[in-house]
Amino acid sequence: MADEYNTSPQKNFEALWKILDENYCFFDYKGIDWDEVHDKYSLQIDESMYEYKLFQVLSDMVNELKDGHINLNSSFFFSSYEGWYTEYPSNFSWGILNDKYLVDAARGGNYNEIRYTRFAGNQIGYIYYGSFRESMLETELDSIFHFFENCKALVIDVRDNGGGSLINSDRLASRFLTEKTLCGYIQHKTGKGRSDFSDPYPIYLKPSHNTLWLKPVMVLTNRRCYSASNNFVSKMRELPNVRTLGGSTGGGSGFPFTSELPNGWSIRFSTSPILDVNMQHTEFGIEPDVEINLLPQDIENRRDALLEAAMELLLSGV
Amino acid sequence: MNEGTLIGVGTSHVKDTYLSPFNYSGWGLRILNERMKITGLGRDNFSRQQIINVDISSTKNPAENVNDFAAFADYALGYHYRLDVVPGFRVLTGMSAHLSGGFIYNIRNGNNPLSAKIDVDGGFSLITLWNFRMNKLSFTLRYQGELPLAGVFFSPEYGASYYEMFNVGNLSDVLAFNSFHNKFALKNYVTLDIPVESFTIRLGYLNSLYYSDAKSIQTRIISNSFMIGWVKEFIPLGSKRIKYKNRVKSSYY
Lengths: 318, 253
Prior knowledge:
The structure holds 2 protein chains of 2 kinds. Chain A contains 11 helices and 13 strands. Chain A has helices at residues 9-23, 27-30, 34-42, 51-63, 83-86, 94-101, 138-147, 166-173, 228-236, 296-300, 305-316; strands spanning 71-73, 78-80, 106-108, 114-119, 124-128, 153-157, 181-186, 201-205, 217-221, 242-246, 254-260, 266-275, 290-291. In chain A, the strands form 2 sheets. A 7-stranded mixed β-sheet of chain A has the order 3-4-5-6-9-10-13, with helices on both faces. Chain B has a single domain, classed as Beta Barrel (Lipocalin), CATH 2.40.128.100. Chain A binds chain B through residues 1, 3-6, 15, 19, 23, 25, 75, 166-167, 170, 186, 188-192, 196, 198, 201, 203, 255-260, 262-264, 266, 268, 271-272, and chain B through 15, 20-23, 61-66, 106, 108-112, 157-161, 163-164, 167-168, 170, 172, 215-216.
C-alpha cells in the first residue's frame, strides 16, 4: 500500500477491502464470500464520484459483514451497522427505570452514571451499569457491596450496555467467584489468510482480593448488550449463583482493531474472536436463562417487567 | 574519560503496520550522553564506550489528521580496539551490545493504540577519529557506525491484542530471534568537536534506521537529528591512572 495521501475512490476502496480481507475474523463463521463482495461493490466505484457517495458505498460494503464493531469514520460521517439490535424487542425503557425505580439511587463510576440502590425493603441490591466505558475503583465497588451488606440477592442490570472496556467488566465479574474459573477462550489472527488463527487460549476469571458477593445474582440483559457487555454476560453465566434474565444479548464477540485508509478515514473491525467455554462464538448473542420480554402493556403501566420478574424470582428463592 | 552530552532536533518517519499501513512523518527530539574511556586491556589499546540515548517524536499520517507519538530509550555498551593509522587519524573497531525499549502510540486507534518495542542485540561498531588543526585550533571529526547483527526482540503475532497478551496472559510467541532476515538497524553518527576558549562544543548528526518484518508486522523508523552539546575530558576520581598523570592519554583526542 503506497504511503502517500490519496483520495482516489478506487485506491481507497481497494485499501479498505484489503484491510478487512487480511484482518477481519468472522468470514468463515458468517459464511461471507469476501471476493464476491469485492466484485459487487467495485462496480459502484468510479474515479469521478464524490467522497460522500464513496463513503456510502464503502459503508454498504462493510455492512455486508453484519458486525456492530465495524465503523467507518470520516470527518463528515460515521457509519455503523445497527441490524444486530433494530429487529429485536428493546426490553428496556430508561424512562420507566429512571423515573420509577431509580429516584433515590446513588451514583458511581468515573462519569457518575452508574446507579445503585436497594429494593423490596432492602432485600435486593441493584446496580445499573449502562456502559463499560464507566470504570469503578476497587474501593468504590467495596463501598457498594458494603451498602448491599444486608441484602439477600443482587440484580445487575446491563441492559443497553453497548460495551466499553473488558478491564471494567472483568473487575465487576471478579467479585462473584471464589476460585479461578474458566470463562472462555480467545484467538487472534496469525497471518493475513482468512483462516489464519491461533489455537484458542483459555481465559480465566480470578476472584478479586476485595469484597466478594457470593449470594444469588440475576443479570438483566437485552439485545443492546454488546461487545464488553456481551463478554460480561458470557463470563457471569459460568459463575455459581448467577443467572441471566431478559432477552438475548446482541453479541459482538470480536475484539476490534482500528486501521486507516489512504484518504485518512478510519476503519474499525473485529479481529480476535472471543469464544465461550464451549469454544462457541457468541458473535450473534447469548440467550438468557430466563426469557422475559417487556410488553406494550408493561410500558403502558410504567412497569419494568424484567426487573420485577428478577426480584420476584430472587425473593422466592427459585 | 571523554563525556559528551548533546541535544538535537530533526525529522522522524514512523511506520508500524500493527497500528497503520501508512508512514507517519514529523519531528523528533533527542538527548544523547556518551562516555568513552581507555580500559586497562591490551596495553591501553582497548576503549569502552557507553551511550544513553532518548528520543521522542510526534508524527502525522499522510492525510495529516492523526498523530503518532513515539518514545524510545536505548543503552549501548561497546568495546573497541584502537588503531592509530596515521598521526591524527585513528580507527576503533569492536563490538557493542544494545538494549532499547519504547513505544509508538496512535491517538486514534481504540484497542490497538500502542506498539511496544523492546530489543536486545549485539553487533559491529566502528569509529573513526580525525584530529586536525585549523587556525591554531584543534578539531576532532568522528564517524561512528553501529550495526546490530543478532539478538532478541519483542514480536507479538500479527493480530494479537495487548489485552490477550497482558490481561489474559497469553505471552507465548511474543519474543523472536532477530538477525538480518527479519531486522536491519543502523546508526550513523557524525560529530565535530570545536574548541571555544576553555570549552569544547560538539556538533553532531545522527541518522538512525530501523526496519523489522516479523510475523507479518512491518516496522520502519527513520530519524535524522542535528545535535549540539558540550564535551568534558576528565579523570574519574579514584582512578589508578591519576597516580601516573604523565601516562594519561585521551580516549578520544
